[in-house]
Specification:
2 domains; DNA Binding (I), subunit A; flat; 48% helix; 6 helices
């Protein structure tokens, strides 16, 4: 955190951002401590996990495009099969590839069938995150095509 003199010179918006950063630092420290306490950790990259899993999302079973980057909901992320907070380890046998949105959505709202997860991901691609008029937004052609690809994905391949 900042000293009192620097804090007093910040605008309200800057103070809000600094509080948010302080909260995130605390969360990251707690997560790192839990990971150390849960046992061994393996070294891996997102590319290695994607290649191993055939660039398929473990949650919705549709293709994960490695070209997407965060914060895009379709960007690749590492999903812990047994969550770190539930005592899971950060090892290769406990991680899998998932879309960023599928990963966070499954953690926040619980498990879903692959079809339900694909539908929620397609909805996010089409209509964006949240806010007034979310359903009234007109998606561009690229979002339409991507949502169609996601919803048509079959579970087997």
């Amino acid at each position: 955190m900042l000293d009192q003199d620097r804090w007093s010179r910040l605008t309200e918006e800057e103070r809000k951002a600094e509080r948010h950063r302080a909260i995130k630092r605390g969360q990251n420290r707690r997560r790192a401590r839990r990971m150390r306490e849960n046992g061994p950790r393996d070294s891996y990259t997102l590319l290695q996990i994607g290649e191993r899993d055939g660039w398929r999302c473990v949650i919705c079973h549709s293709t994960v495009n490695r070209e997407f980057k965060a914060p895009d909901p379709c960007s690749p992320s590492v999903h812990h099969l047994v969550e770190i907070v539930a005592g899971g380890t950060d090892t290769l046998d406990n991680i899998a590839l998932a879309h960023r949105f599928c990963n966070s959505d499954s953690y926040a709202w619980g498990p879903k069938t692959p079809a339900e997860a694909r539908q929620r991901l397609a909805d996010r691609v089409l209509h964006g995150k949240h806010g007034p008029g979310r359903r009234d937004r007109v998606p561009d052609a690229g979002a339409d095509a991507l949502a169609d690809d996601i919803t048509r994905a079959s579970e087997g391949g």
